[in-house]
């Protein structure tokens, strides 16, 4: 066959095929564009049908382009990818979340309506159909009902915040399917039941907050699988049993809140593994046994509260290694022995409460190194000897409580150095001597309890001006008159438990 003939036939074939294919491609392109336009129109109608974008705040600068409406962000194709607003208002009425048709938003990545109490009602199960959703924040609303199990289908979620609502029921097992989660915040609801062990599947979590709920049962050991967790808040629930040993290997943990539960068992030496901890709150549980000396390894710790447990034994001297500590609360335990002198190393300490224990011996003079201290409570112990004069170097003190001990010696006149003092309680001790006039010269002193000591002499006029002064059960002299023009009016009752003549002194018996 001649070459020209073959070429002619080939041209005819190509022309024929093109006549078939090109219209098909063109028709498909038209259909695709039409579908996209319809989908975008569907999104716009869904916004309007929710009723959330009809009020004045949304339509003040009304435009038909919904991508320009408040709280709406679209992609380049005009499809909504983010709905985010902290300013929604429904004329003071909460809007039903069920009014929002989530199925119309296949490209939604972020849904964040938080902090205004705008939303009410149940979380619809359709929310699980949002396969591209990465951020879901419905916090601080009035949502009720349970967390739908379908939420486990939104597997691209990396932030889930349903906190501070009125949600009830249990945490669904399907939550463990959200393996890309970085933050899970469910605090401040009425969730009950067990913490699901499937939560241990969320190995990318850096923050977990389940506090302020009604969760019960044991803390699952699978929480120890969360190897990059930095923030763990499980406080204010009804958790029972011991703290799983696996949790003490969460080395990246920075803040750990387990307070206000019913946890039992010891605080083991493995607590020293958690060397990145800055906040450790285990108060209001039923923990027993001694405080391990390994707690001294937590040298980044800033706040330590082990109060209201049943811990016993001495306070370890290694606590002096916690040189970044600003708050130390060990009150209402069964701690015994001497108050270690190493506490003087805690130069940043602002607040310290060791009341309600069985501590003995003198207050160490090293306490005078705590020049940032604003509150010190050593009441209800068995501390003895005199008040160390070095304590008066803590010039920032505002509250000082040394009551219910066996302290003796004279009332230090250096008390006047504590120029920021507001409240002083030295009651129920064996302090003797006279009340120094310098006490009454402290500018903002408002409450002083010196009752049940061995104080003697006359109460200085400057001290009598303290608004709330309790000096009963001492050996103070009382007189009928006073030359002080600023003295308060005479009271009907003499100082209870004191002797001598009645004096114009205000006492709160």
From TrEMBL:
Keyword hit for Signal:
yes
Q: Where is the composition biased (Basic residues)?
A: 496-509
Matching InterPro entries: Leu-rich_rpt, Leu-rich_rpt_typical-subtyp, LRR_dom_sf, RLP29
Record-annotated membrane-spanning stretches: 7-25
Query: What biological processes does GO assign it?
Result: post-embryonic development
* Chain positions covered by the region annotation Disordered: 478-509
Membrane topology recorded in Swiss-Prot or TrEMBL: Single-pass membrane protein
Q: Which UniProt keywords apply?
A: Glycoprotein, Leucine-rich repeat, Membrane, Repeat, Signal, Transmembrane, Transmembrane helix
Record's GO cellular component terms: plasma membrane
Among Pfam families, the record links this protein to: LRR_1, LRR_8
Is the keyword Glycoprotein assigned to this protein?
A: yes
Q: Where in the cell is it found?
A: Membrane
Q: Which SMART domains match?
A: LRR_SD22, LRR_TYP
Q: Which PANTHER family match?
A: LEUCINE-RICH REPEAT (LRR) FAMILY PROTEIN (PTHR48009), LEUCINE-RICH REPEAT-CONTAINING N-TERMINAL PLANT-TYPE DOMAIN-CONTAINING PROTEIN (PTHR48009:SF16)
Q: What is this protein called?
A: Leucine-rich repeat-containing N-terminal plant-type domain-containing protein
Native species of this protein?
Citrus sinensis
* Biological classification of the source: Eukaryota, Viridiplantae, Streptophyta, Embryophyta, Tracheophyta
């Amino acid at each position: 066959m001649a070459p020209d003939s073959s070429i002619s036939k080939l041209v005819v074939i190509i022309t024929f095929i093109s006549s078939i294919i090109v219209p098909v491609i063109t028709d498909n392109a038209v259909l695709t564009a039409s579908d996209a336009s319809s989908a975008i129109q569907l999104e716009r109608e869904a916004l309007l049908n929710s009723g959330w974008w009809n009020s004045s705040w949304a339509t003040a600068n009304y435009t038909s382009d919904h991508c320009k409406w408040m709280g709406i962000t679209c992609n380049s194709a005009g499809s909504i990818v983010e709905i985010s607003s902290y300013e929604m208002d429904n004329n003071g009425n909460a809007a039903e979340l069920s009014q929002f048709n989530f199925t119309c938003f296949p490209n939604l990545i972020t849904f964040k309506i938080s902090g205004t109490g705008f939303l009410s009602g149940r979380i619809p199960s359709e929310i699980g159909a949002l396969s591209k959703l990465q951020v879901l924040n419905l916090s601080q609303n009035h949502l009720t009902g349970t967390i739908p199990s379908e939420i486990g289908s939104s597997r691209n979620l990396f932030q889930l915040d349903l906190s501070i609502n009125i949600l009830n029921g249990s945490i669904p097992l399907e939550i463990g399917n959200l393996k890309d989660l970085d933050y899970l915040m469910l605090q401040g609801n009425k969730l009950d039941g067990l913490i699901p062990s499937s939560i241990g599947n969320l190995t990318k979590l850096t923050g977990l907050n389940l506090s302020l709920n009604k969760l019960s049962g044991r803390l699952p050991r699978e929480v120890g699988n969360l190897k990059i967790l930095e923030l763990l808040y499980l406080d204010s629930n009804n958790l029972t049993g011991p703290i799983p040993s696996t949790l003490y290997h969460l080395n990246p943990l920075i803040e750990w809140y387990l307070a206000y539960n019913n946890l039992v068992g010891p605080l083991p030496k493995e607590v020293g593994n958690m060397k990145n901890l800055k906040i450790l709150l285990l108060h209001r549980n039923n923990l027993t046994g001694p405080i391990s000396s390994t707690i001294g390894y937590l040298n980044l710790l800033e706040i330590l509260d082990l109060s209201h447990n049943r811990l016993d034994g001495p306070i370890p001297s290694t606590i002096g290694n916690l040189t970044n500590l600003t708050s130390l609360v060990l009150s209402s335990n069964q701690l015994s022995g001497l108050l270690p002198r190493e506490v003087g190393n805690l130069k940043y300490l602002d607040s310290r409460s060791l009341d309600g224990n069985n501590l003995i011996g003198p207050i160490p003079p090293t306490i005078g190194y705590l020049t940032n201290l604003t509150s010190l409570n050593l009441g209800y112990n068995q501390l003895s000897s005199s008040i160390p004069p070095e304590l008066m170097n803590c010039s920032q003190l505002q509250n000082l409580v040394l009551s219910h001990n066996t302290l003796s010696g004279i009332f230090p006149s250096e008390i006047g150095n504590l120029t920021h003092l507001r409240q002083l309680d030295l009651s129920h001790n064996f302090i003797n001597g006279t009340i120094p006039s310098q006490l009454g010269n402290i500018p903002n002193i408002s409450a002083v309890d010196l009752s049940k000591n061995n104080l003697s002499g006359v109460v200085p006029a400057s001290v009598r001006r303290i608004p709330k002064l309790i000096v009963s059960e001492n050996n103070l002299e009382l007189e009928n008159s006073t030359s002080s023009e600023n003295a308060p009016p005479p009271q009907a009752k003499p100082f209870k438990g004191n002797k001598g003549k009645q004096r114009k002194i205000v006492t709160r018996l």
